[in-house]
Write a structure and sequence with these properties.
It contains six helices and 29 strands. The protein has 442 residues and is mainly β. It has three domains: 89 residues, no CATH class; 45 residues, no CATH class; 307 residues, Kelch-type beta propeller (Neuraminidase), CATH 2.120.10.80. InterPro entries: F-box/Kelch-repeat, Kelch-typ_b-propeller, Kelch_1.
């Protein structure tokens, strides 16, 4: 959209049509469905689009010249301005539906259009419309070692933008953190000097806000997103004691976050207290898998929360055949097309969970080094109908150098080995040790 006046406004229509020498030729663009035009913020030479040519004459003025594409008529065609006074203005409702279909990567341009559209974005109403009409777009938010800022990437990692500085204290900035997304909110949980707190980034306003705190503030918990909501379960209170730093209080409580009300809802407690566990959403249930109990023992069981029944179902030995090393990361899991996939750090093997037999099937190695730090520093996420993995490349000679290597694939539980596609993001690369990674779908 041009920085000049809107063509749909009254002033814009007068600018376009004030010098039309022939009123009988007005409405040609408005009435002929075969004609089309577009406007760009640059000022290139005249463009030909669907029988019409467009060129810009100074700020806010455009020339439209049309031809009938008949041989011998080109010499008789003269430039003319278009008059849009006969075209009815779009209703706010229809305009909102059109704007909701614009890619989110273009939203930064909206403030230069008009105040109504800017207000529509900041209020969150535009994102609600996107949700209602089923328009979704994935973004990946990453916090990597050696960087003080969070970065947001588009799905193909072709562009990135730096988020505003998070105004937390130094204890929060340099400590361990958990992240999750709910609607248009990026939730970060970590410890400040006064205790465990939550910071949230709001996409609508491009700003950080503190809170709301969880009902039971926690770290090292499992989390998953479903639609606009997020679920958390387990973890620790953040309290530690003794020389060895033994965890004092491991949780079995669970909560649900609603971004519309900016509030947490208490859920029924799990059967098993656990920390360093992982979460996912599958079969319309919130799964919490693995982790360690209050004695530090490895848990191979999982639990699934059914919102309809408001109850947890215990799934024994879900990770029975999975080797788990000391100080290993929480299970690296992701759900694509309602199938559960796991990245085994010790072998760099990708596996799929076969629900009927309750066993795991190997699908071959992944192209990043999950084994070098026992699963820490690797991002393993679902990205629409693809798996996303980010970390240090397994290649001897890597195109990514010391930066992060990014791969996606479309998994198939019937395949013996998957085809991984590298994403070349050029200068958009961060460190190859990923501290936090969350996918937002809005």
């Amino acid at each position: 959209m041009s920085k000049g006046k809107e063509l749909g406004s009254e002033d814009g229509r007068r600018d376009v049509s004030r010098n039309d020498p022939d009123p009988s030729k007005k409405r040609v663009l408005a009435e002929d469905p075969g004609n089309s035009f577009w406007i760009t913020s640059n000022s290139p030479p005249m463009k030909k689009m669907g029988g019409c040519e467009i060129s810009r004459r100074g700020s806010g003025c455009y020339d439209f010249s049309c031809s009938n594409d008949r041989v011998g008529d080109s010499s008789n065609v003269r430039p003319q301005d278009a008059d849009y006074s006969y075209a009815p203005q779009l209703s706010d409702e229809l305009e909102n539906l059109i704007l909701a279909r614009v890619p989110r990567s273009e939203y930064w341009k909206f403030p230069i259009v008009n105040k109504r559209i800017l207000s529509l974005v900041k209020s969150g109403e535009l994102f609600k419309i996107r949700r209602e009409i089923g328009v979704k777009e994935s973004s990946v938010f990453i916090f990597a070692t050696g960087d003080k800022s969070w970065w947001g990437f588009d799905r193909q990692f072709r562009s990135r933008r730096k988020l505003p500085d998070l105004p937390a204290d130094c204890c929060f900035s340099f400590g361990d953190k958990e992240s999750l997304c709910a609607g248009t909110h990026l939730i970060i949980s970590g410890r400040e000097i006064d205790g465990v707190v939550v910071w949230r980034y709001e996409l609508e306003t491009n700003s950080w806000n503190k809170g709301p705190s969880m009902i039971n503030p926690r770290c090292l918990f499992a989390s998953a997103s479903c639609g606009a909501f997020a679920f958390v379960a387990g973890g620790v209170t953040g309290t530690a004691g003794g020389v060895t730093g033994t965890v004092v209080d491991v949780l079995n409580s669970a909560e649900k976050y609603n971004p519309d009300t900016k509030s947490w809802e208490d859920l029924p407690r799990m059967r098993q207290k656990r920390r360093l566990c992982s979460g996912c959403f599958m079969d319309n249930k919130f799964y919490v898998i693995g982790g360690r109990n209050e004695e530090g023992m490895v848990l191979t069981c999982a639990e699934a929360y059914d919102e309809d029944n408001k109850a947890w179902d215990l799934i024994p030995d879900m990770l029975e055949d999975t080797p788990i090393a000391t100080f290993q990361s929480p299970p690296l899991i992701a759900v694509v097309n309602n199938e559960l996939y796991s990245l085994e750090p010790s072998s760099n093997q990708l596996k799929v969970y076969l629900k009927k037999s309750r066993t795991w099937k190997k699908l071959g190695p992944v192209p990043v080094r999950a084994d070098s730090n026992k699963g820490w520093g690797v991002a393993f996420k679902s990205l629409g109908n693809e798996l996303l993995v980010i970390g240090a490349s397994t290649s001897t000679v890597s195109y990514s150098g010391d930066g992060m290597a990014i791969y996606t694939c479309r998994p198939d539980s019937e395949s013996e080995e998957l085809l991984w596609r590298p994403l070349e993001c050029g200068k958009n690369r961060l460190s190859n040790f990923i501290l936090n990674c969350s996918v937002m779908v809005a």
